[in-house]
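Anyone able to model this chain together with 2-acetamido-2-deoxy-beta-D-glucopyranose?
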Amino acid sequence: MPDLLSIGVTLLLLLVVYLSLDIMGLFNWGNKFQVEGRTVLLTGASYGMGREIAAQLSSRGASVILVARNVSKLESALAYAQSLAKSPSTQRFHLISADVTSEAENKRLLAEATTWNGGRVPEIVWTNAGSSVPDLLLNTSVETMRSQMELNYWAAAYLARETLTAWLYPTTPYSPQSVEKGGQSEAPRHLIFTSSVIAFVNIAGYAAYGPAKSAMRALADGLRNEILLYNGARRSSTSTGQAPAPFDVNIHSVFPGTIKSPGFEQENKTKHAVTHLLEAGDPAQSEAECATACIQGLEAGNYSTGTNWLSKLMRVSSLGGTPRNNWVLDICGQWVASIVWIFVLPDLEGKVWGWGKKEGMPARKTELS
Ligand SMILES: NC(=O)c1ccc[n+]([C@@H]2O[C@H](COP(=O)([O-])OP(=O)(O)OC[C@H]3O[C@@H](n4cnc5c(N)ncnc54)[C@H](OP(=O)(O)O)[C@@H]3O)[C@@H](O)[C@H]2O)c1
Ligand SMILES: *[C@@H]1O[C@H](CO)[C@@H](O)[C@H](O)[C@H]1NC(C)=O
Ligand SMILES: *[C@@H]1O[C@H](CO)[C@@H](O)[C@H](O)[C@H]1NC(C)=O
Ligand SMILES: *[C@@H]1O[C@H](CO)[C@@H](O)[C@H](O)[C@H]1NC(C)=O
Ligand SMILES: *[C@@H]1O[C@H](CO)[C@@H](O)[C@H](O)[C@H]1NC(C)=O
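re: yes, here you go
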């Protein structure tokens, strides 16, 4: 007759084994982001991290549609992605020049991408176009605040809305006959947002950009919950007259920290010195390193991906009601982060306060007065 103590110890040991396997990812094995033989629509693909994302997805066997404004830069990014193709004879590449801040342009580019893709909406859509114009709020025009929101929030919201509509409510309704069982048409779709670590912690100098990337994060969180309605309806026996899509839809966000990209160089033109000071210790990644980190997060099946240690730490420190990638690791990370903040917050605040005390009132653009 086993006593209570040995039953307790056994249960505890089983729990430890379970948690260890969970942490090692044994319950989440395999690549959750298969791109081979599939088509990716990627905005902001002509230079910066987007160019590397296109190339790395190409090397994994994806066909890629590259979107940005400047055609000659798109052409060179397309040639680069093509040169790294895994199966050059079957993978295809296409470029679309569009300003993604326009709602109409998002409609056009998705329609053009679908036609080019043989009438199928691309299976993976990644809204990556974005850039930051950092400055103190009181030195920023309302026009800049709005255009930052247009590019870093609205562009993603337009494309997300168009894409989800095209996937879930196609003009030609899904019929069971048209679906090849177990084939591409049933493989999950992926909608991916490129946000920023700034969505977890905003600091002096990003008053126009930070809120846009936070709004994007909130959009992704809401959609991540909302999409379950459609994924659930697929398994329903209740007929509403609207045929469900034959696939699940997955939503993801990636949160880069500093990327050494043309966009980051551009930031230098308006970035306040105190922002430089706050960012001085931040880890910086090359475009390729950051692209790899994003794709690895997607391959792990993670809903949200920090691309370096700082972004990972900030992610777990501000989980709120956001879906967890791994309950054990994310909760432990949360505990660590809450201790780290005890030191980081006074440091951030002290630096900004100290700057004001030393340098005095900041100069302001005269045209803003
Ligand atoms: N760099 C960083 O440190 C950093 C940190 C965190 C997050 N991020 C985010 O990561 C993403 C990539 O950043 P990055 O630094 O690699 O960007 P980047 O070097 O500035 O490149 C931006 C890309 O977006 C395109 N683009 C810009 N405005 C556009 C518009 N209105 N319509 C269509 N395409 C447009 C650009 O091409 P065209 O100019 O030809 O249109 C280019 O392909 C962005 O969403 C950015 O906000 C960057
Ligand atoms: C596109 O980029 C090229 C190469 O950097 C540049 O020469 C050209 O002026 C740009 N075109 C536009 C329309 O901005
Ligand atoms: C941006 O400016 C800072 C300080 O002014 C400088 O140290 C840094 O090298 C510059 N970075 C880029 C990418 O131009
Ligand atoms: C996926 O998320 C888990 C839990 O947060 C994390 O430990 C893991 O490193 C992530 N994987 C990648 C490749 O980012
Ligand atoms: C405000 O903007 C002007 C023009 O871009 C710039 O010269 C100035 O340094 C900015 N002021 C501060 C405090 O950043």
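The radius of gyration is 23 Å.
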